[in-house]
Amino acid sequence: MPRWLLSFLMLREDQMIRWGRLNGRLCLGMGVALLAVSAFCYYLVNMRLGGTVAMFQNIHEDVLKHLARDSSAATRSLGVQMKAFSGFFLAQHEMLKVLWLLMGASGLTFVYAGLMALRVREILAEPSPSSGSLPP
């Protein structure tokens, strides 16, 4: 591997040969774990929690319609508080929908880093063509 590429990747040849396999395998393991957690989060947030959010929203609308019939100050205050809580709950659900994307992207990054570490170690372990031994 050319020296300029090693310096560009900020790698030292002796460290990559010694720790490249361990680093690659740890990165691959972490990447697979993050991808599995990402799939579980997708299922949990979009499949399981989505129905609960829809049910909560329907209940909230029914209660607000019922409270709209009464025009007392306490009822209006309760309606405003319920609307604020509902908005907060729905915003949290929308924010959680993105969580699986972040974990999935991190998992793919770890997988690619692990593959790169393993490949760079293989390249560094090969004899260099400048060592004088040419293949027949």
Describe the structure.
This protein has helices at residues 3-8, 13-68, 73-125. The two termini are 21 Å apart. The model has no long low-confidence stretch (mean pLDDT 80). α2 packs antiparallel against α3. By secondary structure, it is an all-alpha fold.
Give a concise summary.
The chain is mostly helical and 136 residues long. It is built from three helices and no strands.
Write the layout of secondary structure elements.
Layout: H1 3-8, H2 13-68, H3 73-125
Name the descriptors.
136 residues, mainly alpha, rod-shaped
- Please state the overall shape, judged from the principal axes of the Cα atoms: rod-shaped
C-alpha-based Rg, rounded: 28 Å
**Element-level helix/strand string:** HHH
Largest sheet: none
Percentage of residues assigned to helices: over 70%
Please count the beta strands (DSSP E, at least 2 residues each): 0
Query: What is the mean predicted local confidence, pLDDT?
Result: 80
Low-confidence stretches: none
Strand content: under 5%
Helical element count? 3
Termini Cα gap: 21 Å
Backbone structural class: mainly alpha
